[in-house]
Amino acid sequence: MESLEYNTAPSAEGRSSGKTALRNRDVDEIVLRAVATLEEDIVLGYLHPRERLIEDDLRERFDLKRHVVRQVLTELERKGLVERKKNFGAVVKFHTVAEVMNLYEVRDILESSAAQRIPLPLAPERLDTLVAIQRAHDGAVARTDLRAVFRANMAFHKALFAATENLELADVIEDFAQRTNAIRSSSTVIPEHLEQSRKEHWEIIEALRSGDRDALVALCRHHLTPARDHYIERYRMLYRDKGTADATRAASVSGARQETP
């Protein structure tokens, strides 16, 4: 019987498709790296609420083409970190007090619910993972390596809520945590807040180890409040000062008008 020979070499079309897929994957990785860096910049207060993100600046900083920069901005917008303004461009998201309260109310509901669902005492392998992450977090806090602090903090909470074994719930929690990153920027760089967060992580680990459900839920809820309250305090102080400045300016203008012959 005559044997059949198959040509297994990729066709020109197949080679082209493979190169396109590779290029797309490379672009995706570039976008993710730029988004991660800018997210850290926002959380750490290097970029402030309402600060404009200029495409040409981003092109130069990350050595990107314009269409890739726009992909980066789209992803930041999807994460709730950036908003687009007509005829102005992209700016870092600014939240009102009401928006902050609403976002943190949702986070409280989600994270309290997750804490109720984590099997206790936590399985040793999951506990070991959290301990390893927290040791990395401790080291970053001690070195004042704020970018490493942020990454370790995110990893800790991701591993914590993954312990629910409900990946959909864990994903929603992560999504809402990302939406509040611009809010957290007001407190992330404060040493007292970093130390408080570090200690609370260890208390959460102890509650998981001992199986203390009530303590775990209370800790998860309390862990949310410092960043929320600090942002609201700064917001109110800013607008109180702005109101005072506006009133002083108005009185000055009024007085000048009265003195004009």
Walk me through this protein's architecture.
By secondary structure, the chain is mainly α. It has two domains: 74 residues, Arc Repressor Mutant, subunit A (Orthogonal Bundle), CATH 1.10.10.10; 141 residues, Four Helix Bundle (Hemerythrin (Met), subunit A). It has eleven helices and three strands; from the N terminus they run αβααββαααααααα. A three-stranded antiparallel β-sheet has the order 1-3-2. Strand 2 and strand 3 form a beta hairpin. It is globular and about 55 Å long. The N terminus and C terminus are likely disordered.
What's this entry about, in short?
This protein is mostly helical and 261 residues long. Helices cover 74% and strands 4% of the residues.
Specify the overall morphology.
globular
Helix content: over 70%
Please give the CATH class of the largest domain.
Answer: Mainly Alpha
Relevant CATH superfamily of the largest domain: GntR ligand-binding domain-like
The number of distinct helices, counting runs of at least 4 residues, comes to: 11
- The value of Rg in angstroms is 24 Å
Q: How far from one another are the termini?
A: 115 Å
Strand tally? 3
Q: Note poorly predicted spans.
A: 1-8, 15-22, 244-261
Strand content bin: under 5%
Q: How many domains?
A: 2
Order of helical and strand elements? HEHHEEHHHHHHHH
> Looking across the biggest beta sheet, what order are the strands in?
1-3-2
Reported for the largest beta sheet, the result is:
3 strands, antiparallel
